[in-house]
Structures are given as structure tokens and as C-alpha cells.
UniProtKB/TrEMBL annotation:
It comes from Halomonas llamarensis. It comes from the Bacteria. Pfam families: DUF2390 (PF09523). This is TIGR02444 family protein.
């Protein structure tokens, strides 16, 4: 269970605003794309966990499981379809103004799909103490290694087929986690 001060702070800082700010930090975009492409990490969920961490909170793994399935479904059925289409049109957009315009529209739709997904993650967190107590808890002890902490929700045996150690075998993936952890440490933590 989380205290009302942390929950109030969470309500004042939207996940979308946090995501835009965090994603714009040096090297974060490249790190997120690396984890998305090489480690199959859902960037929206990653940003969700980073947002919670900023406020001294984390999601309870058992409570997270059902929402993760719903968010994964959204990513597969909507966002990934748009992303794949946008990537497919990349080469053709360089030689055709019409395709470039279409690709830009698809990119905007992809961004709207990401925003919708983040809003659903936020709604899940903000309704946690009202409708389903026990979804969130305070971070018991601030970890020395934010990068490692950020990986835990993704590499718990219940949720992902990769392990942290197997994922760290790839230096680009390991570096991506370190970049995100380093940027996360610079944020002001809720008191």
C-alpha cells in the first residue's frame, strides 16, 4: 500500500508528461529503442515503471500481471501494427512525397496509440488505492543500482523468458539499461 502523499504526487505529474521529458533526455530514446528491438521490452511499460520509481513507488508483480496482458494486447494489435507499417514505408517515403505524407500520418497515429497506452497505465496506477488496494507499494529501500531495479519487472520468471543475466550478455542491451538507470537517478524523488 502506498501513502497518500506519493499518490497525490503521482496525480500531479502525468505519465505522458513524464514520458516526454524522460524520453528527451540524452541517450534515452536510443536506449529505449535498443531495449524494444533487442530485448523485446515494452517501452510504455518501461516508462510506467520509471514514472512510479520517480515517485518512490513500484507495482506489485501479482497485481501487474493482468494489466500487463491488456497493455501487451494493445501494443500487439495497435501500436506494433502502426510501427511496422511506418518502418516498411521508410525507404519509399524518401522518393515519394505522397508516401512521406502517409508515413508522417502513420507516425502521428503511432504516437497517439503510445499515448493512449500510457494513459491506461496511468489510470491503472491512479485507481489502485480506490478500486484495488495493493497494486502499488512504496519502494522499500532506494536501490544503489537503478538500472538493475528497472529491469526487475521485465525479467521476473513469471513475466519474461529472458533472464537479467542472459540479457546482460549483450553489451548494447546492458548499456541501454545503464543509460536509463543513470538518467533516472538524476530525477528528483518524491519525499
Amino acid at each position: 500500500m502506498c501513502n497518500s502523499t506519493r499518490l497525490a504526487a503521482l496525480k500531479q505529474n502525468s505519465l505522458w508528461d513524464f514520458a516526454l521529458d524522460f524520453y528527451a533526455r540524452p541517450e534515452v530514446e536510443a536506449a529505449c529503442l535498443c531495449l524494444q528491438d533487442e530485448a523485446k521490452v515494452d517501452v510504455c511499460e518501461l516508462l510506467f515503471h520509471a514514472w512510479l520509481y520517480r515517485h518512490g513507488l513500484e507495482a506489485e508483480p501479482e497485481a501487474l500481471a493482468a494489466e500487463r496482458q491488456a497493455r501487451t494486447r494493445w501494443q500487439q494489435e495497435v501500436t506494433s501494427v502502426l510501427r511496422d507499417l511506418r518502418r516498411t514505408l521508410k525507404g519509399r517515403a524518401q522518393t515519394s512525397h505522397g508516401i512521406a505524407k502517409l508515413r508522417a500520418t502513420i507516425k502521428e497515429a503511432e504516437m497517439l496509440a503510445e499515448r493512449e497506452n500510457l494513459q491506461r497505465w496511468q489510470q491503472w496506477a491512479l485507481t489502485s488505492e480506490i478500486s484495488s488496494p495493493g497494486r502499488l507499494k512504496e519502494v522499500a529501500q532506494w536501490p544503489c543500482d537503478s538500472a538493475r531495479w528497472l529491469q526487475l519487472p521485465f525479467f521476473s520468471p513469471k513475466f519474461h523468458s529472458l533472464s537479467v543475466s542472459r540479457c546482460e550478455e549483450h553489451s548494447t542491451v546492458k548499456n541501454a539499461w545503464e543509460v536509463l538507470g543513470g538518467q533516472l537517478d538524476r530525477l528528483t524523488r518524491a519525499r
